[in-house]
Amino acid sequence: MKTVLKRLSAIALAATMLASASACGGTKVPPATDPVTTEAPITEPPAPTELTIAKDGKSQYTIVYSGSEEYGHNTAFYLHRFFREHLKVNIDFIDDSDRPAEKAEEFEIVIGKTNREASKSLRKSIKTGEFVIAASESALYLVGKGEEETRAAVEYFIANIAGSVQGECTVAADLMFDSGEELTPVLEWEKNKIHIGSGGYVRLTTLQTGELLAAYSTSGIKIAKSTDDGKTWQPAVSVTKPAKTPLGDNLTFANANAIQYGNGDIMVAYRAHTPTNSKKNFYTSIRYQISKDGGRTFGDPVIVAEYQRNDTDFKGFWEPHMVILPDGKLAMYYANDCVGPQNADYPYVPSGSYQHIMVHVFDYETETFGKGMIASNGVEHKSRDGMPVVCSLSDGGMVMVIEANWDKDYSFIVQMLFSKDGITWSDPVTVCKPTKAKHYCGAPFVTLLPDGRLAVSCQATQYSGATAGDTNVANSQMNVYISKEPITMANCGDVNEASFVKVLENPLSMGIETRSIWPAMHVHNGWLLCAAEIGSNGSGGITGLYMRRASIDSIK
To answer: What are phi and psi of 360, to 5 degrees?
Structure first.
């Protein structure tokens, strides 16, 4: 993204006027009749054209944050770490109240809502969802309307302005970047984040009654309903009961996904497996249960696929996802990295380096799924194609997102496939990836917006802000992207990374030291809903399943 430079009107103009006044006051003008004694005018040195934040691995600057902001310290540490680790410059950071007033704004990088007058003025000039990055005299300001916007300002500065030369960092002395003017907001999140319940890996669906249903895992698989578009949630209902694997271990349940079909039956699918990979034998399965009374009770579990390995290798079946195909049939997709015999009736993978995306079609009469077929072939793609999510396109086609690891520069990237029938799929194309090598971008989701555009989400470690292990999957944050135009089977061949714009504000960031993982999205009753498992990277932090809403009308 191109950095736009403009003059900071209020601050820079005042500085210019002050310099002009000083110049005029210091100029001695002798009588014109005495050319011999006329002195040369005293002129001020030209104003600097850039601020030298760092040079030759050294810096005069200090990062200043607001101690009154809940995550001010962590945001400052995040910027400090960037300078230290990527530019090899150590720039300290302090609370704004810990630096004497006479030193204020002198060689400072001011972050957020500080007691500095310039940062106060800048905050007043912008709206919710916006930030500014500005330079004046010897100070640099990264200021958002709120804490999340300030975090976005720091991310933008790192990605687009700070540079990548070790030991050096300069910015234009008249730098003024206003995100509200230069970055078109894609959507506007509601202020509040809504607590759904305790657990992990939540998925949302809308019932025929108009109720919103959430399926998730917490001591088994549970569902909960909302009758007010997700603002409040009814007590959860248990889908599963404690059970044993064929090996005698307690089953672990996870990766819940729900769908309503036909005359109103609700199906909840999930994976059930050996609790850890420390066992000598490992059991894995994909199962589902059906409710015929609107989700109050569920029938016995039915197995779609199962496998047992006689070792401790943690391979298996993962992340079932269900959709209605263009022909009206119900299909289930899931990831399969079970290493098994290659001449078997079921397509296992030859080694743990690969993973297939499988699809099964449901028979409404027998209420069972048919034979598994490969939807995305990880062996052919030389990849662990995983975590499939599928939705319809506006013209009746289908789109799938997966995470893939064939690109050795990154641990995972997000790819997209297309299909006319939901059975035979195109080759995958990359739509999201980190901008830093070795970082992770995975756990994707896709949903269709009313105007035909696609919303894609993922969890990504870049700029996670964790003070330790920032490339760990567990430190990811949910990111959301919106396609620039409607995507159909007619133009899907042109889809690539440039087809999508990242939403500036991550929806479920609750501070630098938190994660928002295994994210999901859903369009419901005029809202784009984003949900994820929130956890703290420290002790005593916030945990649980949270959701945030954005009005569809706000999507630009």
So the answer is: -125, 145
Q: Using an 8 Å Cβ cutoff, are 253 and 244 in contact?
A: no
Token pair listed for 360: 């099964």
Span 166-215, pLDDT tens digits: 899 999 999 999 988 887 778 889 989 999 999 999 999 999 999 999 99
> Does an H or E element contain 282, and which?
strand 282-291
Q: What is the 3-state secondary structure (H, E, C) of 77-112?
A: HHHHHHHHHHCCCCCCEEEHHHCCHHHCCCCEEEEC
Q: What is the dihedral of CA 429, 431, 432, 435, to 10 degrees?
A: 80
* Confidence class for position 538, pLDDT limits 50, 70, 90: low
The set of residues, in sequence order, having a beta carbon less than 8 Å from that of 32 and lying 6+ positions away, is: none
Strand runs labelled E in 151-211: 169-172, 176-178, 194-197, 200-206
Could you give all domains of the chain from N- to C-terminal order, each with its CATH number? 24-31+41-182 (3.30.379.10), 194-554 (2.120.10.10)
> What is the reported pTM?
0.83
Q: Cβ(150)–Cβ(75) under 8 Å?
A: yes
Q: Is 414 helix (H, G, I), strand (E, B) or coil?
A: strand
- According to DSSP, the residues that pair with 402 across neighbouring strands are 415
R_g of the chain, CA atoms, integer Å? 28
Sign of the four-CA dihedral 3, 4, 5, 11: negative
What is the sign, positive or negative, of the torsion defined by CA atoms of 287, 293, 295, 299?
A: negative
DSSP letter (8 states) at residue 352: T
Strand bridging mode 221-226 / 356-363? unpaired
Q: 108-125 in b/e burial notation, b at 16+ Cβ within 10 A? A: bbbbbbbbbebbeebbee
Pairing of strands 544-551, 194-197: antiparallel
Give exposure, 207-223, as e/b (b: 16+ Cβ within 10 Å).
beeebbbbbbbbebbbb
Q: Are 201 and 534 in contact (CB under 8 A)?
A: no
* Runs of H (alpha helix) within 474-551: none
212-251 per-position pLDDT tens digit: 999 999 989 999 999 999 999 999 999 999 999 988 889 9
Average pLDDT over the chain, rounded to an integer: 87
First to last CA, the chain: 18
pLDDT at 125 over 50: yes
Angle, helices 147-160 vs 72-86, to 10°: value is 10
More confident residue, 482 or 156: 482
Best CA proximity match to 215, nearest among 261, 264, 256, 269? 256
